[in-house]
């Protein structure tokens, strides 16, 4: 017997029929002898619909009220799913974030979990029930409803799995797991069978949309094995773990898939996957004084706007005496107000010009094997050069290389690099079943 | 300055535009110098839609999960309304039933309020905010979400008004107040300008749909003046109170309406209004043993089915030695299982026959003036007889006479009695603006 936390995104519970399919899967897991805790997102487009309605009322909804509004979506899905599981003859109880003991700070819209007290969920399991928990929501110390922001339901699931010492946290989505690249861009992308949490973190941080960064960070910190898989099929998905799988889980995985997992590790490619990201813009500050502290002052201003900077490059053109150019990338939604803040500080910073470029794309190559394998960057730059693609910025970590290209070149870049690193499968493995969940 | 609790039903907040209208009314009230607490129902058909979805999943949803599901509706409407009020430049905060301190017992679906601790609402008011509270919901001692059942939002509003010592509880609906009869049946019905809580209780208990019985009971017990009025107009509605209105409220009421309220009280009719009810069925137990305790046993069985009996008549036909017939009326939704329970007890009760009649209607004449005015029942029976309408059952209280007729005769009966008691207005006063709220 294993304790399994299953997380279902919005596309897995888009309508009543989908809800019934999920209920049946929960019941099947339980009938196979396991304890099940379910974390569920709002149904289909519910969250977007609620946001649309709020937008019709005000362009600046108060954060507190917006959180109350949005959490209604998960209340609906969790209570309906509990009904559906009950209808299959298995007792189930639904719990709000507050009832499940998900304690957060008071940052509405992007609250951080500060404590987990899932007593009622634990009691439910002991009593032989399936516990169904609303994703994405928590309660603050002063009794306010909060939401966890993007990837919130994944985070709820992993945090619950950690607090309950679950054997695995299954993240159900609409594809069969993680792929070596986005199958919509690279049809020959392979499913990744196992991957370390560290590599997953790099992929998530650099544009791979299947799992949210915070959830993976939680999983790594608390050693929660993740299994990303499709809610539309029974196939084995991608196991994300830094420790060997619990043998009790074997029953959850089809034998063929297990065999596939035991392929010769020597043949594992050095690259786990390629992530891409179209959501960043680039700002270049031209001719800023090259004096100590001026770059610091620049990024202080940017930080005051709440923008997370991704890549930074500074270069000192030979033509401008004692002046530098600084380029950085940041989320597109932050670009406007950062540009305004910089413009307002033109005199203080003493730069000549501000350039703004929204048409950039970022490709990131991730693999633990890169650490020990020389020549990875040479192969990467060679592949891009051969495809006639210019590189704008470069940044690296121990297990990742990222390059910025023109937006229009991004897809070709992903395809070229995928092929160059021998990641192409001989047959198309990827099936995308629906939209993407929250 | 007065403290005013305003309750808006589902039809008053059916869509974004209606929501904005309500927000404007709230803001106008506040700008007139008053403190405002708002209780709001779910938008339009939200509750019915949620029930429909649940019905597609199971025919027997667990009560606990059904309550969590339904309360999502008020979370949506209250947070949107708070946004809309904020958008008008007045600070507003939304509170769930739990946050507003509405403590209930654990009877999901029909919870009773056992305590009111609206500290956060009181603090909001002190801080100059408009507090917006979800109607219909509360929290039990063991931290479960509960709903208050039919008329729940009215009850929330009146309970809050009582706990906060509000000067008035305004119940906004889609008609201009209480009328002497349902204007859809009697187009010449008059708006009732003032009425006692006792009379309102009788009207509500006997089919008048504008206010729920429990809310009126609460208002009477805690001396909360009610003002039932339309959210679609500025007209004065119906004041329900056993004490004179707070002079501070005068500013809320158009002067013309105030003048109308000060009409010669000598001309007040002895009858306040006529309620009608199509929701009851009749069961007749023929030939039950006329022995002590047999009727008690019969009604014990009925009570075990959770059915509230309204009218009871027992008669002893001359043809049946020592046997009686007992007829009673009960809510139509309880008729099936009560019939089954009685059928199962046929031997024990020793009756000859069970008769079931769904085609009955009930007319109730209510007026405090009836107490001291002889001849009311004679006039009632005369009017019905002249209209060729047979009376089946009769029951009376000190301020009410109810008669049961054939369902098909009910409308004509209401019209005939309305005319006979001189209630007809010379012009049509009633405007019905929309559907009915919860």
UniProtKB/TrEMBL annotation, chains A, B:
Keywords: Amino-acid biosynthesis, ATP-binding, Diaminopimelate biosynthesis, Kinase, Lysine biosynthesis, Nucleotide-binding, Transferase. The keyword ATP-binding applies. It is an enzyme of class 2 (transferase). Residues 283-359, 365-438 form the ACT domain. It catalyses: L-aspartate + ATP = 4-phospho-L-aspartate + ADP. It holds the Pfam family AA_kinase. The keyword ATP-binding applies. Pathway: Amino-acid biosynthesis; L-threonine biosynthesis; L-threonine from L-aspartate: step 1/5; Amino-acid biosynthesis; L-methionine biosynthesis via de novo pathway; L-homoserine from L-aspartate: step 1/3; Amino-acid biosynthesis; L-lysine biosynthesis via DAP pathway; (S)-tetrahydrodipicolinate from L-aspartate: step 1/4. Its EC number is 2.7.2.4. One of its GO terms (molecular function) is kinase activity. PROSITE patterns: ACT, ASPARTOKINASE. Belongs to the aspartokinase family. Catalyzes the phosphorylation of the beta-carboxyl group of aspartic acid with ATP to yield 4-phospho-L-aspartate, which is involved in the branched biosynthetic pathway leading to the biosynthesis of amino acids lysine, threonine, isoleucine and methionine. This is Aspartokinase. It comes from Schaalia radingae.
């Amino acid at each position: 017997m294993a304790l399994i936390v299953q997380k279902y995104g919005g596309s897995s519970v888009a309508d009543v029929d989908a809800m019934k399919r999920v209920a049946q899967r929960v019941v099947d897991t339980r009938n196979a002898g396991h304890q099940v805790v379910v974390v569920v997102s709002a149904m289909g487009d519910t969250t977007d619909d609620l946001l649309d309605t709020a937008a019709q009322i005000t362009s600046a909804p108060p954060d507190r009220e917006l959180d109350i509004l949005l959490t209604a979506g998960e209340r609906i899905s969790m209570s309906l799913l509990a009904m559906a599981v009950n209808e299959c003859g298995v007792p189930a109880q639904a719990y709000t974030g507050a009832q499940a003991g998900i304690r957060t700070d008071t940052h509405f819209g992007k609250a951080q979990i500060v404590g987990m007290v899932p007593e009622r969920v634990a009691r439910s399991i002991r009593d032989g029930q399936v516990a169904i928990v609303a994703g994405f929501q928590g309660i603050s110390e002063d009794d306010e409803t909060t939401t966890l922001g993007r990837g919130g339901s994944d985070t709820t699931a992993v945090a619950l799995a950690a607090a309950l010492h679950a054997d695995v946290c299954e993240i159900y989505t609409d594809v069969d797991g993680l792929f070596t690249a986005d199958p919509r861009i690279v049809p020959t992308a392979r499913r990744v069978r196992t991957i370390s949490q560290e590599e997953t973190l790099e992929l998530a941080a650099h544009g791979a949309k299947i799992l949210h960064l915070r959830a993976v960070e939680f999983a790594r910190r608390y050693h929660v094995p993740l299994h990303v898989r499709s809610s539309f099929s029974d196939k084995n998905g991608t196991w994300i773990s830094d420790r060997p799988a619990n043998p009790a889980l074997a029953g959850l995985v089809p034998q063929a898939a297990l065999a596939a997992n035991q392929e010769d590790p020597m043949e594992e490619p050095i690259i786990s996957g390629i992530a891409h990201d179209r959501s960043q813009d680039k700002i270049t500050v031209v001719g800023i004084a090259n004096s100590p502290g001026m770059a610091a002052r620049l990024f202080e201003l940017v930080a005051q706007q709440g923008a997370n900077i991704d890549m930074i490059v500074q270069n000192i053109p030979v033509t401008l005496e004692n002046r530098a150019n600084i380029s950085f990338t940041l989320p597109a939604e932050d670009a406007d107000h950062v540009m305004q803040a910089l413009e307002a500080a033109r005199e203080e910073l003493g730069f000549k010009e501000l350039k703004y470029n929204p048409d950039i794309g970022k490709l990131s190559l991730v693999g633990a094997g890169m650490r020990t394998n020389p020549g990875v960057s040479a192969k990467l730059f060679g592949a891009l050069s051969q495809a006639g693609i210019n590189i704008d910025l470069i940044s690296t970590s121990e297990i990742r290389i990222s390059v910025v290209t023109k937006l229009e070149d991004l897809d070709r870049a992903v395809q070229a690099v995928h092929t160059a690193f021998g990641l192409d499968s001989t047959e198309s493995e990827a099936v995308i079943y629906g939209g993407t969940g929250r």
